[in-house]
Amino acid sequence: MRPAIDLLAQVPDLPAGDVIDLGCGNGPVGPALALRFQGHSLIGVDNSPAMLLTAERTGAYDDLVNADAATWQPQSPPALIFTNALCHWLPDHAALFARLAGLLTENGMLAVQMPRQFAAPSHQVLRDVASLLFPDRFDYSTYKPPVVPPRAYAKMLAPLGDINLWETDYIQRLAAVDTGHPVRHFTQSTAMRPIAAKLDDKELARFVHAYDAALADHYPLEPDGSVLFPFKRLFFTLSV
Questions:
Q1: 159, 199, 209, 221: which sits with the fewest CB atoms below 10 Å from its CB?
Q2: CA 16 → CA 9, 24, 35, 101, 161, distances in Å?
Q3: What is this structure's pTM?
């Protein structure tokens, strides 16, 4: 929740209109948004019905919408579109952010947080090991990270409105694990998933063994088995 709260802290008072939690998932940010923007209807949008069912149980949302964030359209211009750790999954950010900004009411705001960890060892090693062990399935020779450097977003967003843009390295302490490396346990539910989906059980075990070994060189264990893990995230608010 820390990145979401850090982003929320930079959102000022809003004009009339709905607050949209775009890519709300199971609703972790919903209660904070509802508390911060009392008097505004809070609408969660996600493409997973199972996630929306869980989000409904938070009691934070006035409405929940099953839709693809890339094509979603509001019923009326919202005051805020808040999107936390979603947009790195979506292509063509120039078109995406121009479209989302164009949906807002006058003086409305787009608030975005995205991980920018793709050049870090945690993610680079994923690609290196996959292409080394299974070159028939993984070719990253033309790979481009889905989130570009901050200056590129500053130029991209400048024609759309007033920008507040920053980047933060969060130094996380990952707890010791019984088997393997703590960083792998962190990435296996997110960045590792597209690779794991293309491997059978035997291949995946081979990949995990090699990935764990490579991570140990970049993220040495502390005496208690934990790891200090820097994780970079990019943020911006855009007022239109």
A1: 159
A2: 19, 21, 16, 16, 18
A3: 0.91
